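User: Please predict the structure of the protein below. I'd like the answer in structure-token form so I can feed it into my own downstream comparison script.

Assistant: Understood. Taking the following sequence of 325 residues as input:
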Amino acid sequence: MVALLIISSAFKTPLADVAKIPAQRLGLHTIIIDPGHGLPDPGADGKDGTESHYALLIALKLGEQLKQNLPGVNIIFTRTDEYLPDHLSNKNDALKRRAQIANENHGDLFISIHLNSGQDSYSKDVIDHRKETYYTYTGKGKKRKKIAHTRTVPVYKYTNLGTSAVGTETFIWAVGKNDSKKSFVGAGEETGEPDDSSSNLMFDSPEAKILASIRTKKFFNYSRMLAEYVQDEFVKQGRVDRGAKQRDNEGIWVLQATAMPSILVETGFVNNRDEEDYLGSEKGQNEVSYAIMRAVLRYKSSLENGVVPAASSTTDSTQQANVFK
């Protein structure tokens, strides 16, 4: 209590009033759509295509649907062709550029489109037979002899059957990465880099740090709300629901580095043969993009109606995927 009084006395604005500032309703004026990967980084491989290719097609359709249904909202893509943003050659540089695009354009929402990948399984089929020579030995010492034999053995063909994993999941950054997110939120939405400069007096002030922390928690809760909307819309289409999740063991850097609510949608498994056929089809891409678009419309309606998502009670940041549902 004493420490709190000492800190608050340094503010020109009382702590109670500071807490009220981020309580203003979020707007939705600019949406950043991020098709994951991009050549020379193809992402996960399917039988007929790559994660990068399918993600781009879905993202472009999502953008068109959002433009039709939200004519007053600015839609910005991090890439619109098969290559990394700005045709960069290094995927880590491209990740930084994705965040810069979002932050420099003052995005209100960041949506990254990806496809999942599971463990492959294989079939083993006999396609032919061949003769094989093998040897046995008789006797001992100088009388030891090597005797050749032949036998017929099968020739196998191994076929990659892909994964049996199916379904969609939507990620936000994990609670354990809030400090990383906060550094970008407090950077003034300009560079896409965390602001740890001691020369930045505004962000180094206790008041600014508290504001950044409050905004970060607010962004977390709104991101979770949108993630749950996305999964709910997929369920309506009959897709398998793998949940709205946070990932903490690796983190998702591009979600942490964007100073806005942000989600990453795994639209299906590219190495599941049925799901790849679906995601590679016009019908599948239209349905997937429609589900995400519907979730964004619900999100916008929630913002306009002053809906405040409940704060997460999740405190365990050691799990790879903490499921909200």
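That's the full token string. Confidence is low (pLDDT under 50) at residues 1-24, 187-203, 314-325.
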